[in-house]
Specification:
The complex is a heterodimer.
Chain A: E1 5-7, E2 10-13, E3 19-24, E4 31-37, E5 44-50, E6 53-57, E7 65-68, E8 75-79, E9 88-95, E10 104-105, E11 109-113
Parallel strand pairs in A: 2-11
Antiparallel strand pairs in A: 1-3, 3-8, 4-5, 4-9, 5-6, 7-8, 9-10, 9-11
Chain B: E1 3-5, E2 10-14, E3 19-21, E4 24-26, E5 33-39, E6 46-52, E7 60-61, E8 64-69, E9 74-79, E10 88-95, E11 103-104, E12 108-113
Parallel strand pairs in B: 2-12
Antiparallel strand pairs in B: 1-4, 3-9, 5-6, 5-10, 7-8, 8-9, 10-11, 10-12
Classes of the chains: A mainly beta, B mainly beta.
């Protein structure tokens, strides 16, 4: 069964450093998403992406964040200058066109900013 | 704004017994989708079941079923014949067609006792 994959599974970085989180969505999906979950809290929407552009973003998704689909398979989230409060689990999700709005999640990347 | 409320931070059930997790939501829309996601200790988000608001029939997936009460804006998850592997955080989520973001509740931690 096709699934969303994410790399790395864990990332430790110093405050102020740039990080890139990578995702490979399900191959025939066209809608892509990033969510984050700070430890012990609910899952929060960051951004959605369709047809090579951002379709919606939350207040969390400020100028420090960017997304890109550099090729036909990868979908990346870049944090330009990480802050301590960016420490969280980051989930990528994807959705097909005929999937009744169902988003399928990857296993997540656990980001720790020191 | 749409909100999703899970009023039970924690629940426990004996193995082989049945448990029901509660979820209510607030929306003025008539067309939407509801989901239950499971998050085991590995922290991956796994789709358990989904319900389309326009369908009166409650969704069922093996041991998992929902009680969808549209007028009451209630969407509870029933797990029958609970197994040790059902132990996880369970998140209720809502999405409107065309509006990309999933809105999650805070989750219910389910413990299954042997």
């Amino acid at each position: 069964e096709p699934e969303v994959t994410q790399t790395p599974s864990h990332q430790v970085t110093q405050m102020g450093q740039e990080v890139i989180l990578r995702c490979v969505p399900i191959s025939n999906h066209l809608y892509f998403y990033w969510y984050r979950q700070i430890l012990g809290q609910k899952v929060e929407f960051l951004v959605s992406f369709y047809n090579n552009e951002i379709s919606e973003k939350s207040e969390i998704f400020d100028d420090q964040f960017s997304v890109e689909r550099p090729d036909g398979s990868n979908f990346t989230l870049k944090i330009r200058s990480t802050k301590l409060e960016d420490s969280a689990m980051y989930f990528c999700a994807s959705r097909g066109q005929v999937d009744q709005e169902t988003q399928y999640f990857g296993p997540g990347t656990r980001l720790l900013v020191l | 704004a749409q909100t999703v409320t899970q009023s039970q931070p924690e629940m426990s059930v004996q193995e082989a017994e049945t448990v029901t997790l509660s979820c209510t939501y607030d929306t003025s829309e008539s067309d939407y989708y509801l989901f239950w996601y499971k998050q085991p200790p590995s922290r991956q988000m796994i789709l358990v079941i989904r319900q389309e608001a326009y369908k009166q029939q409650n969704a069922t997936e093996n041991r998992f079923s929902v009680n969808f009460q549209k007028a009451a804006k209630s969407f509870s998850l029933k797990i029958s014949d609970s197994q040790l592997g059902d132990a996880a955080m369970y998140f209720c989520a809502y999405v409107r067609p065309g509006i990309e973001k999933l809105v999650f509740g805070k989750g219910t931690k389910l413990t299954v006792n042997p």
